Amino acid sequence: MNITRRDALRTTGALGTLVSLGLITTEQAMAAESRPAFASKTLSGALEAIGGQPATSDQIEVIAPDIAENGAVVPVATVSKLPNTSDVWFLVEKNPQPMAAHFAFPNGTTAEVKTRVKMGKTSDVIVVAKADGKLYMAKKETKVTLGGCGG
Amino acid sequence: MGNPMRIRAKSANGETTVRVLMSHRMEGGQRKDANGKPIPAHHINTVTAKHNGKVVLSADWGPAVSQNPYLAFSFKGGAKGETVEINWVDNKGDSRTDTATIS
Amino acid sequence: MKKTTQSVLAAACVAALMAACSSTTMSSSADADRATAEVIKSSFQNKGIAKLDRIAPEASNDLCSQADVAGKALDEKTAKAIEAANMAAIKWPSDGKYLGDWKRGEKVAQSGKGLTWRDKITRVNGGNCYNCHQIDPSFNSYGTLGPSLVGYGKLRGVTDPNSPAAQAVVKYTWGKIWNSRAYNACSNMPRAGTNGILTQNQVRDLVALLLDPNSPVNK
Amino acid sequence: MRKHLLTAMTALALSTLAYGQSDMEKGINKYREMLADGNPAELFEMNGEELWKTARGPKNATLEKCDLGKGPGVVKGAFVELPRFFADTGRVQDLESRLLTCMETLQGFNAAELAKVKYNKGEMANIRDIATYVAGQSKGMRFAVPQNHASEKTMYEVGKRLFFARGGTHDFACATCHGEDGKRIRLQGVPNLTKNPGDGIGFAAWPAYRVGNGQMWTMQKRLNDCYRQQRFPEPKYGSDATVALGVYMGVNAKGAESIAPAIKR
């Protein structure tokens, strides 16, 4: 988490220079993906950006459908039973940029969250949890069916 | 300024469950328009939830979160009549803050 | 193309139409028919390539629709008249070549594109086949409005579609795709050839998809 | 003998297939259940409620006196009794064509001009949201589309004829896809709309949020897109053909519970 924030700040600084030089507009600078974990095109790169390869854990529950009728909206959720879980990340391995979302839980917030992500095709949905500063992960496969009829 | 969020916050057994729907196109940056020009990414970057001014959840999102995003989570404490505040900021600097009363 | 075919069909079906009309003499039903015609006239508009002539009266469609509303099958004489008119509208391959490439046929079968008001006239139309039929058994996104076509050639005993023994099945398959209503008066299947949905070459490729022993359909 | 073996093998293959398919269908049903929690349609409903209560249009008036069939201003329960005959216009109207009337008489808009606006744009987006709000106020109630007035009966008969009317380049009618039980287009189940298809299915499920394109679709938009796929010319917004089909499907759905606004793939 800290690493991500620091890197983000550093990159923002560089973009700021480009803006001041008039090479890019403020809006482009805002819109450009400056967060390494989100910008990474590979799973290993995204994991590297959040602190390295996590250990597998059966204490993380990944809730995702076996089959998603439409990859544009795939309901996903996770519950971490690891004590002192401070963060969770959702990644979709086969997406062009695997990192989908990061959630940070301050003390008093249950390590449980539900959202919806896009999936380009059938893939593992991976949840990484950080507990006591260490990374753990679990995964589940969701099949994305072809949609569509005439037209 | 985005459109209003739909926030529901319910307290039970010393815990408050929050469910939020946000109105945002969450354009992924992979698609092309009718003329073949790429449609630039436009998505929520950060979400922050506060209860009584204290942050109870923060999130970083990329373009892979679905259009009109949905988010549900829960935190310890929170009483009926108190408020929960949700804020989002997108990659073009647009933002939106809404509050809801805990029921 | 379609217009000429329709007028041919209309002429051939006039006798059948008269018979159907005389059997539905209930005045309330006739009133509803008239009201429906008025409603259709006032409700639809041209859009893109989809013009109002697409819903102009057409004898074999109208007779089938009337039978559906009444909830009873067409009488045999009318059905035969419709089938004969549609049979006459089948265009058989000019060079006697019925079989194309099954791999291209699979693409035609997968595509449901073309001929909606959003499409350009230049767009290559699809056959819409998978929307209603199972075809390649390894492909699981298929519809069930029509029968499964898995094993189509094999089940009909076709081992070499170019052999004289297979000619009857080959011809029937061509005809069925070109104009399904030549064989079943009120079939729900689009008349792909007669109505100008698919080209001769596309129909060849579909015939191959169904009958080529190397096609996944017959594996 | 050989023939028998072949038949037996085909039967075996079919049953294996049917088993696999039902697993797939179970998976898809589970997916749909997961989606039902947190339907973005609520965002459109919320906006629609706001629009209903906001003074707008040349006459700067709200829609709060709009008569949707149960008296001026009564929203709850109105949706499950539409389309119906309205004496003031002398027409059978569905929810959306009725909203056009209210926007013209109460707010001073030109209904004919509004009906030409592109779906999801300008005032048409507002009508979409208002319709979503009004439908949501009947959620959980059962359909009881009236058949009392002679015009309502005629429109049912017209709707039935339209439902079975084959046309377009593909000879499709509504009934081609929606005339039998248990059928699918690709993997999508297509309900039989010639009878009550069950609670929250078919007419009882629109307006609906479509996750595929993130759009809110009303019944008018649903019918418009059906006709597009049928390769027909376009039905005009709120036209008698669309209303008649609404009467046919709505009356057939008598007793079905409305789940609108629903969420769909």
Describe this structure in words.
The complex is a heterotetramer of chains A (about 150), B (about 100), C (about 220) and D (about 260). Chain A has a domain of about 90 residues: SoxY domain (Immunoglobulin-like, Sandwich), CATH 2.60.40.2470. Chain A has four helices and nine strands, in the order ααααβββββββββ. In chain A, the strands form two sheets. In chain A, strands 1, 3, 5, 6, 8 and 9 form a six-stranded mixed sheet that branches. A three-stranded antiparallel sheet of chain A has the order 2-4-7, with no helix packed on it. The N terminus and C terminus of chain A are likely disordered. By secondary structure, chain C is mostly helical. Chain C has two domains: about 90 residues, no CATH class; about 120 residues, Cytochrome c-like domain (Cytochrome Bc1 Complex, Chain D, domain 2, Orthogonal Bundle). Chain C is built from eight helices and one strand, in the order ααβαααααα. In chain C, α1 runs antiparallel to α4, α5 crosses α8 and α7 crosses α8. By secondary structure, chain D is mostly helical. Chain D has one domain: Cytochrome c-like domain (Cytochrome Bc1 Complex, Chain D, domain 2). Chain D is built from nine helices and eight strands. In chain D, strands 6-5-8 form a three-stranded mixed sheet. In chain D, α2 packs across α5, α3 crosses α5 and α6 packs across α9. In chain D, about 50% of the residues are buried. Classes of the chains: A alpha+beta (about 150), B mainly beta (about 100), C mainly alpha (about 220), D mainly alpha (about 260). Chains in contact: A-B, A-C, A-D, B-D, C-D. Chains C and D meet through α2, β1 and α3 of C and α1, α6, α7, β3 and β7 of D. β6 of chain A pairs antiparallel with β4 of chain B, so a sheet runs across the interface.
